[in-house]
Amino acid sequence: MNKPAERTEPVPEATSHRLSLLLRALRGLETAGVHTATSYEIAARFGLNSAQIRKDLAQFGEFGVRGVGYRVGELKAHLKALMGLSKTRALGIAGAGNLGQALADSRNFNAEGFRVAALFDVDGRKVGGRSRTGVPIYDVQALEDRVKELRIEIGILAVPAEGAISLAQRLAAAGVGALLNFAPVTVPALPGILVKNVDLTFFLENLSFQLAESKT
Amino acid sequence: MNKPAERTEPVPEATSHRLSLLLRALRGLETAGVHTATSYEIAARFGLNSAQIRKDLAQFGEFGVRGVGYRVGELKAHLKALMGLSKTRALGIAGAGNLGQALADSRNFNAEGFRVAALFDVDGRKVGGRSRTGVPIYDVQALEDRVKELRIEIGILAVPAEGAISLAQRLAAAGVGALLNFAPVTVPALPGILVKNVDLTFFLENLSFQLAESKT
DNA sequence: TGCTGTGAAACCGTTCACAGCT
DNA sequence: AGCTGTGAACGGTTTCACAGCA
Fold first, then answer.
1. Average pLDDT over residues B78-99
2. CB atoms within 10 A of CB A92
3. Residue B2 — pLDDT band, cuts 50, 70, 90?
4. Rounded-to-integer distance, Cα A64 and Cα A55, Å
5. How large is the average pLDDT for residues A141-167?
């Protein structure tokens, strides 16, 4: 099993979403002490089709054992490697306001694969301080230097709309590989860098829409 | 134009996402002083296909004028009505930590269609206070009473994983129609209520995956 | 036997292309 | 003439169904 699995074509986004889900499911199984699981069992954990799980995994190699299923720990390790989570990436958060600090202190952002290395802000009263869990707050002027020094790979924008675009450009120029933008503007595609815009209003509007729909 | 447009079948999720985008595009056009726009022009505003825009809209009625295009203001009003945004919905946020306060004060959550009416927390020092923009912080014990009194329609979970599920149930029982969950647990489908789980780790993992991919 | 890995079928969403209004 | 509204073609993803291996 476990063939080299050369991948050239880009992985469909839907697949990458499911991979995240799958990893969660595996974590759950692992802490539940389960060592082996079939695609049917995993599929049941989130209402999915078992063939889909097998197909998704088949894109990357043969991780299963016929007649048995998948070894949970092994598959999880493969998956983490696949998703680039086997080493810890440093994150830098622009904006030490409520949102920035919430993210900096979040267990999510300091879990398997990630570590918040720095917060940046323009407010002189915040600069030099630390977040509740101890993430240092640097002056945004030192952004480029700190990104390089701390080897920050992913930049997170938690600033008001106004400053977002120019900060995105500075982070990109400083060498981060990806940007996660929470500011209510769409950061355009920047050359050589991945950008993901997350607009929280979006989720609200969707709920509202579904509410309106269901009431009809 | 503008036929009744009976809709029975559920709208595909992709459509509802695009409707949000479309609304943004229309806001942009409106503030730019544009009164009429063709589907081609709108499509150009975000890299989409013009037919898709027409198809999406066609599901709900006939809003366009052949040979001319769409009247921006009119279409926007229709869209807002469609999405349940023509009246303001009250939001209640459980958890007055950094994330909860960030959301409460966010312009996004207090824009067209939404208004944060209350924050809830267990911390006695916070209770009785207000967020920076003036959203009152209530004791979580008063959750049910306040939800009813303030006619809160959407509950937002900005609490740690532990308390999330039980709060979700309390909010549901108190009568909210939808829940937006930011806690790092999956809130299961509750009867008669819409639940949207937003796991911020998800976005990070996806970026990480794409980074890992692109480096290959 | 029982489950994975996978070709083939079914399904769904997107794009094309044009008929039909204005 | 010009653009919307829409049936038909296309492409991609999901599901089915089974061959192949432990």
1. 96
2. 25
3. very low
4. 11
5. 97
- The CA-based angle B130-B136-B139, given to 5 degrees, is 105
Residue B73's pLDDT is 97
Tell me which H or E stretch contains B139: strand B137-139
Quote the mean pLDDT of chain A: 93
- Does A112 lie in the same domain as A71? no
Nucleotide nearest to B68 (CA to C1'): D3
Mention every residue, 6+ apart, whose C-beta is less than 8 A from residue B167: B94, B140, B143, B155, B157, B159
Q: What is the mean pLDDT of chain B?
A: 93
Task: Please state at what angle helix B200-214 crosses helix A13-31, rounded to 10 degrees.
Answer: 120
Hey, which residues 28-67 in chain B have their CB within 8 Å of chain A? none
Report field, pTM of the whole predicted structure over 0.85:
yes
A208 vs B114: CB contact, 8 Å cut-off?
A: yes
Which nucleotide has the shortest C1'-to-CA distance from B67?
A: D3
Type of residue numbered B143: L
Confidence at A209, pLDDT banded by 50, 70, 90? very high
Per cent of chain B over pLDDT 90 is: 86
CA-to-CA dists, residue A123 to A88, A97, A182, angstroms: 29, 10, 19
**Domain with B171 in it: what CATH number?**
3.40.50.720
Taking the C-alpha atoms of residue A77 and residue A61, their distance in angstroms, rounded to an integer, is 13
For B184, the token pair is: 């790092």
Question: Contacts of residue B194 in chain A, CB cutoff 8 Å?
Answer: 207, 210-211, 214
Q: Where are the beta strands (DSSP E) in chain A?
A: 36-37, 70-71, 89-94, 114-121, 137-139, 152-157, 178-181, 194-197
- Shared domain for B106 and B195, answered yes or no, is yes
Nearest CA in chain A to B91: A204
pLDDT band at A4 (very low <50, low <70, confident <90, very high): very low
Type of residue numbered A213: E
**Chain A residues near residue B116 by CB distance under 8 angstroms:** none
The DSSP letter of residue B88 is: P
Same domain, A68 and A101: no
Two structure tokens written together for B13: 């999720």
Per-residue confidence (pLDDT) for residue B189, from 0 to 100:
87
Supply the pLDDT for residue A189. 87
Of B84, B210, B212, the CB nearest to A212: B84
A116 and A77 within one domain: no
Same domain? B101 vs B191: yes
Is the same domain home to B98 and B160?
Answer: yes
